Amino acid sequence: MHFRVIGLAVAFSPTARAMMAEACRLVTHFKAHLILIHVGPHGTEEDHKMKALLESTGLPESSYKIVWKTGDPVKQILAACQQEKIDLLIAGALKKENLVNYYLGTVARKIIRKANCSVLLVTSPSVEARPLHNIIVNAEDSPYIQQAIEAACTWSQTGPGTWIHIVRELKLLGLALAANEQCTEEEYALTKQHLMREETVEVERMLERIPHRKLKINVKMLSGKSGFELARFAERKEAELLVLGAPRRKLSLLDRVFPHDQEYIFNDLPCNLLVIHPGTHE
User: Fold this and answer.
1) Is the pLDDT of residue 186 over 60?
2) Which residues are registered as beta bridge partners of 134?
3) For residue range 87-122, what is the model confidence (pLDDT) as tens digits?
4) N or C end of the chain: smaller count of CB under 10 Å?
5) Which domains does the chain have, with CATH numbers?
6) Do 28 and 61 contact (CB within 8 A), yes or no?
């Protein structure tokens, strides 16, 4: 999956330089154009701050554009994404929300629900490049599962030795029915094995359509509350990136509605979060 135009929501905060560095690395990797979006006052002071950030990157002027906006942060950032045909929006995020930081977290969640492009939330930006050891892909609850896996495969190429863990939810309905029918232990084990094989085959079918030679891929089955188990699995693996496919937008609502279990992840991010949405730019 290729991102041609990458947007960065710029806040002149202590992490601004690190966020700029994170964006520039992706711009270089994808050979993309960078759109810098700042929502807030715009004057001489802001011009100097933006210039200082850009000077730290060494990017040529032809490779970026600055968009200054005023008004509601969510509406203005989303408007810029549409106007500039952004494929991937990068924004800062907090690993865990509290009352003091509630507003910032709300902005990030609203952007994820409303954006017609992919969104990367960065929890701990770094000026220096850090290796990717583990990428987790949630292969559930989205029409964009294949694109999410493809994005993870592309992302892993930013550094050697990365494991991609494709997570599927083990369907417990079949196991529950088997148990209710008073099957033997052996029959129950066979039912579970059959369900696991079905889920694995589904992932293998998707991988057939995605270039992934020489990549280290692990298919993992999880059971229980998917969002909670997914976050805990990411923590156990000390993952640097968690990839989700965006859900379809509900016809009766303006927002896309994420499954309740996935909403849990937004309140307690285990690592950087990439939500894949191919985009429409209508």
Assistant:
1) yes
2) 163
3) 999 998 755 544 444 444 567 778 888 899 999 999
4) C
5) 1-129 (3.40.50.620), 131-267+278-282 (3.40.50.620)
6) no
Residue 69 CA, chain-centre distance (Å), reads 25
pTM reported for the whole predicted model: 0.86
Instruction: List, for residues 152-185, the tens digit of each pLDDT value.
Output: 998 887 666 899 999 987 765 455 555 556 677 7
